[in-house]
Amino acid sequence: MAASEKLQGDSLEAAGPGPGESLSRTTRKALAKISDRPAPDKARFLLFNGFFASTLILLHVGFQILPSPFWFFGSTQHIFWRSILHTKTMFAQLLIYISQTFGPTKIILTSEGKDLDLSAIVKRDAKGKVIHLTLPERSIILANHQVYCDWSYIWNLLYFAELHNAIVIILKKSLKWIPIVGPAMQMFQFIFLSRSWDADQSVLKRQIGKMAAKAQESSEPLSLLIFPEGNLVSQLSRPISKKYADKSGIADMKHQILPRSTGLLFCLRALAKEVPSLSVIDITIGYEGIPEGDYGQDYYSLQSIFGAGQSPPAVHMHVRTFKASELPLGHDLTEADHATPEERKIFDDWVRSRWQEKDHLLGRFYAKGSFIEGKRGVSKVTEAYGPISIPIEAKTSKDTNILLGSCIPGAIMIAALTKYLIYGF
After folding, report:
1. In the UniProt record, does the keyword Transmembrane helix occur (predicted)?
2. Which pTM does this prediction carry?
3. pLDDT above 90: percentage of residues in the chain
């Protein structure tokens, strides 16, 4: 048996309905918490971590460190940035490969139908396999935050929309200097925030300003991923959210924590001014196997999914889209940080309304195993609403071959450096 086949056999079944299948077939069996599971197989654990770390190092060395001298000269900077773009593409394909090999699962896509007709955006090959999704090319992506791997699965979704090299993620500042990964994400121009507006305003103003200027100068895709909650929903964050809701006299969430709107409003105002076609992609994400009332981080982590092979049977994403020009961003967008108090309140109310909708969706998901089953107006499964089943795997073998081939420059550089350190020139 091939190694990848054995690894997939050790994983949880990647269940989920295909086109036209009954929603009730979706697997809803609860899993044991990570703390209650037996220790993962050591060989598998070492294989995943060894492969993932070595591939990251080779890509980082070959396409981020090696071309870095080009950055210092204005006439050659474009070579450096093309190399960084290639690295981001390869990292996205690495995420696809580790899901396919170490933690097989699938995305179950649903929508409201009216604002995003899935039948119009899905392209299949002759065998019925989803090979492309048509999503807005210039967007801010909003998502609730259930587990640490949310960003990875959303990046997987963008792979099928061919937007995987356009993603920029807003992350916690504590991730900025993680060995190898932190510097690589900095070169990807990801944005690191401390979750304090006083401290973050200058950082956000500088980096979003660069994005806006670049968007104005070119027609390149842009996908800015934001988790407005700023933290995972957990046993620690839920009481804090409730305390704030009670103090402020607003409705609390049951399955999430209250979102923050200040940074999001700034990003939308800054980008909408320069990108008339800017859209907002609103994703509600839910994971099979988590009982209602429990927290995702107790069931799924990077190591439990890929190192131990306990991947979610399916990752459900309910998607809505909005035109940024139709959102309550205020009247004068000349200065992104000059919204009036009244405009800020109106936008904050809009964001909380979206999160209340998400909370209702998650309640339905935990009760029914689907975001749309039992929803008024959805009498039967259609491709307009979904569910659309998308196995997380490379669209072609060519993508995998390019990923593996891209490790060669880094391997050559490391081998040459090692030889020099041992033997000299």
Report:
1. yes
2. 0.89
3. 66
